[in-house]
Design brief:
Shape: globular
Strand content: over 45%
Strand order of the largest sheet: 2-10-9-4-5-6
Structural class: mainly beta
Number of strands: 10
Radius of gyration: 13 Å
Number of helices: 0
Length: 113
C-alpha cells in the first residue's frame, strides 16, 4: 500500500522560507516521477514542481527561482524548499506521483504580508 505523508507546512511572513517533506512508503522513490502540487481556496490545483526518476526537475513559472524540489531516495523522502515566499503562495500543498495515482493528505502553507 502506497502512503505519502507531507509535513513542514506552517505560517510565515512574506520573504520567509519553508521546507516541505513528503515521506513515501510502499513505492520505490527512485523509480517514480514525483511532484508537488498546491491548491488555494477557490483556485484550480497547480503543479508547482516535479522531479523525474533521474533527478531532472521542472517548475511552474510561479515557482521558478524560488522553489527547489529534491529527493533523498535512501530516506524515501521528497522535499520542496520554498524561499522568498509570497502571500500568493498560500495554499494546501500536496505531494503525489506525476501520474497523480497516489496523493498525500497535504500540508497547509500560509504566508502573511
Amino acid at each position: 500500500q502506497v502512503q505519502l505523508e507531507e509535513s513542514g507546512g506552517g505560517s510565515v511572513q512574506a520573504g520567509g522560507s519553508l521546507r516541505l517533506s513528503c515521506a513515501a512508503s510502499g513505492l520505490v522513490l527512485s523509480s517514480y516521477c514525483m511532484a508537488w502540487f498546491r491548491q488555494a481556496p477557490g483556485k484550480a490545483r497547480e503543479r508547482v514542481a516535479r522531479i523525474n526518476f533521474a533527478g531532472l526537475t521542472s517548475y511552474a513559472d510561479s515557482a521558478k527561482g524560488r522553489f527547489t524540489i529534491s529527493k533523498d531516495n535512501a530516506k524515501s523522502t521528497l522535499y520542496l524548499l520554498m524561499n522568498s515566499l509570497k502571500p500568493e503562495d498560500t495554499a494546501m500543498y500536496y505531494c503525489a506521483d506525476c501520474g497523480q495515482n497516489y496523493w498525500g493528505r497535504g500540508t497547509q502553507v500560509t504566508v502573511s504580508s
